[in-house]
């Protein structure tokens, strides 16, 4: 059972499945419906404030989401991390754009950081378009803002100009390779700006499982 079915203005059907904190087991429990042209996991983590959100997102992508995608051979097109505490003094945000006024008031009643009545855009991560395979598809191509249209629409909604959308978009790359004697190792990389990629974090090659 999915949480939301969204039809974009061009007719594209998007399935959104809402989850809790990205480093929890809930990130491995999802189903991609056959009708979904895009499948997005939306992670909300309102009560976990002890660590920087990036730590949880990295854990969720590298250890939870990747494993589920690889083992089940089902793609997830994008991950969204966002809830009403983003852009507040509880979870400060450096972004420049966002929504204000009645749209912000409908979304949350938590005061904005430094008294600013503002809600920043979510952190969005484009994921690979296909499932990795150690021989035939070791480093699958990433989605773009054209192939995963929901991400671009979200940024538009939050007032991010078209000229800045790439810099407000993150990505996560999954790579796999066969190991001598059997088995598969994997590497996960996360960065920003799919147009001119900047690497943030790259994990080491680690044994995933035996084929």
Task: Write structural notes for this entry.
This protein is an alpha/beta fold. It has one domain. The longest helix has 20 residues, at 53-72. It has three helices and nine strands. The mean pLDDT is 90. Strands 1, 2, 3, 4, 5, 6, 7, 8 and 9 form a nine-stranded mixed sheet that branches. The radius of gyration is 17 Å and the shape is globular.
Number of domains as seen in the coordinates: 1
**Run of helices and strands:** EEEHEHEHEEEE
Strand content: 25-35%
- Work out the helicity level: 10-25%
Radius of gyration computed on alpha carbons: 17 Å
Major β-sheet profile? 9 strands, mixed
- The parts where pLDDT drops under 50 for at least 5 residues are none
Oligomer: single chain
In DSSP terms (H or I, runs of 4 or more residues), the helix count works out at: 3
